[in-house]
Amino acid sequence: MAFFSFKRVPLAWLNLTHDRKKFATSLGGVAFAVLLMFVFTGFMNALYDSQVQVLNRLNGEVIVINRLKNNMFVPRSFARRRLYQVRAFDGVADAYPLYISDGNWKNPETKKSFAVRTLAFNLGDPVLDMPEVNEQISALQLPNTALIDTRARAEIGPTDAGIVSELAERELKIVGTFELGTDFAAGNGNLIMSDINFLRYFANRGPEEVNRSFATADVGVVKLTADASPEKVVTALQQALPNDVLVLTKEGPNGFVNRERTYWQENTSIGFVFTLLTTMSFFVGIILVYQILYTDVADHWAEYATLKAMGYSNLYLLGVVLQESIFLSVLGFIPGCIISYLLYTGAANATGLFFQMTSERVVNLFLATFVMCLVSGAIAVRKVQATDPAEVFGG
Amino acid sequence: MRRRVSVAWLNLMHERTRLLVAIAGVAFAVLLIFMNLGFLGALTTTTINFYEQFNADIFLSSPETLEVSTTTVFPRERLYQAEGITGVRRAMPLYSGYVLWRNPEPPNESKAMFAWAYNLDDPVFLMPELQGPEAKQALQQPNVVFFDRLSRPEYGPSDIGTVTEADRRQVTIGGNYSLGGGFAADGTIIMSDQNFARYLSPRPLSTVDTGLIQLESGANPERVKRALEAALPADVEVFTKAGIMRRDQTFWISSTSIGFIFGLGVLVSFVVGIVIVYQILYTDIRDHLPEYATMKAMGYRNRYLFQIVLKEALLLAAMGYVPGFIISLGLYELTLNATAGGLPVAMNFRRMVFVLLLTIGMCSVSGLISVRKALSTDPAEVF
């Protein structure tokens, strides 16, 4: 007895599509459950992804930081001369200092100040792997200039080239833009400037603030030669350098990027909250799909009973209902996915967070949808299996 | 004849399984909305609940300060000026800042710790452990601080007598209290202003982070606030306690986008609820189309059928709200345990009413959409 034979009448497909309107409503239901799951996992991932945006763009395979810098929120820098020491090692092509500081940017329209993060480096060092920044490097040679992140939060005002306002109570002219996005450590937005300008703004801030100089750097970006192994270089560097710095690979499970991500995953309740909400959405989805399938089963009770009386086994009926649930999961997932994508774009614009629909996440959620529909189908089909044909047509 | 047939109730009750599924659907939508609002409420509460422990009715803060952990300082003279205003009993300076706290237990990780500091003669805090001469004596000692029990475990032990380092300077824990750090701080310590000058040097004590103003008994906070605003220059802003809590809350909700996030979560759950209830009612109407058509042919008006569907919707709302509410109480408990009190989710009456209204709205909207089909039925078509 063929289970999924296509020479036979495709009962599952015909059952689903027979009533166009009901079919549309059913698809809508599945799509909404998919949307719910995408929304909650989307927010969770956006909060995590946004934290590592800058880190991903560092142009180096190895990173040097102050050992006390647990995450990018902690404003600890290390002695820049460590990078001169690093350059002497085998496998190291170059080591670039990156300077980071927070300062208040005055919104040119509302005149209110907001904390923004400034990234600075020597213009001759290719510190950031961002073509749009590298194209505008020459503009940053002028005094008191910076590039601004267009994906900053709306509060800081317009983010166009040509704007003149104040950073840390000193005039600043914006000569270009780039796209990065906000995270918990960046405050309301990011600026990029040359190291010389960095000193102009952050070297003389009075006794309440940390006064910066070229003696310290915040992140050391180490570029290796083509044949060097990052892990080997990290081990060699960590052994040779004193304990005031931590040397890591940039990528990899113990790398700089993952370390930052893990910090936010483990030290906040973000994971718990959104995993709980996603799980609940999964159950909502099961209920929705169950409703659809159960209604179909109930409607066609007489027909199913007849089939059983004719000799079709329970397995056949199970197959029909499961086929229906598979069709629903596949066809409902597509509109759900598309609407979620639109929602992600809207949410990214509103929050400045980084919403990413990677193929891995899409596949994971599709599997969840698939399982959701199978579970509903399995529950719905128990009713059919318990049917006694004689009962249905009872006198 | 008074005894009508309660069609709405009987319609729903007739198919038990379908009713149960419907109730489960509504309950889950209600649950989702309760959870979203609960998380939002917990997060907003954590941002400001430490303000309850400040012994003041009016607060002074720099207008550039966005919230209490990233303050811009203002001159201490403003507090002296404030004391001259009628109704002000006392103006107290409060200093704050971050120090790097070293966990004395291996692996000796260091973490940024938020420090509050004040003049020990001022009754700034309401926590019981900080009252009385013993507390004052302990805090007067150089390099001694009180440690917040609610600090995250990564900071290490909170026991009295623990010796470790804060910002590369030795520190001893001289006492404990319970406060909580809100969004910006995973842990807090309290110290005297003299110790603050040591740990956060070269910060001078002549610049203050927050000013706390105590009023004379019987003074009207609003009136004193206006008097202060008139007397003080623009480098300080004057807040009532509620006002400054609102300032911090609004900042955190909007700058971390959690307001948007959970608001969207509520909206999407609401729409899902509409979809669930619509499916039920739509199926019900479709199944009973011959019956409804017959009733219309008999002379019942559209309004009667409309009422039946709406009543069904409201009954579903009521029957789904109760289990949804009960399960969310359980999940709130689960959250409290799972986050060890980090997320203080609590149910309150306003939220219960709000969600009930949302549920009724949700079901009514579905009812309205699904009933259009019934209203447009031409009896003759059906047969």
Helices and strands in order:
The complex is a heterodimer of chains A (395) and B (383).
Chain A: H1 11-17, H2 20-51, H3 53-56, E1 62-66, E2 78-79, H4 81-87, E3 92-106, E4 113-121, H5 131-135, E5 145-149, E6 164-167, E7 170-178, E8 190-194, H6 195-202, E9 216-217, E10 219-224, H7 230-240, E11 245-249, H8 256-267, H9 270-299, H10 301-310, H11 314-351, H12 359-385, H13 389-392
Parallel strand pairs in A: 4-8, 5-7
Antiparallel strand pairs in A: 1-10, 1-11, 2-9, 3-4, 3-10, 5-8, 6-7
Helix pairs in contact in A: 1-11, 2-9, 2-11, 9-12, 11-12
Chain B: H1 7-14, H2 16-48, E1 58-61, E2 74-75, H3 77-83, E3 88-102, E4 110-118, H4 133-140, E5 144-148, E6 163-166, E7 169-177, E8 188-192, H5 193-199, E9 207-208, E10 210-215, H6 221-231, E11 237-240, H7 241-255, H8 258-287, H9 289-298, H10 302-338, H11 349-375, H12 379-382
Parallel strand pairs in B: 4-8, 5-7
Antiparallel strand pairs in B: 1-10, 1-11, 2-9, 3-4, 3-10, 5-8, 6-7
Helix pairs in contact in B: 1-10, 2-7, 2-8, 2-10, 2-11, 8-11, 10-11
List the keywords.
heterodimer; A: 395 residues; alpha+beta; 9-stranded mixed β-sheet; two-stranded antiparallel ribbon; 13 helices; 49% helix; 17% strand; B: 383 residues; two-stranded antiparallel sheet; 11 strands
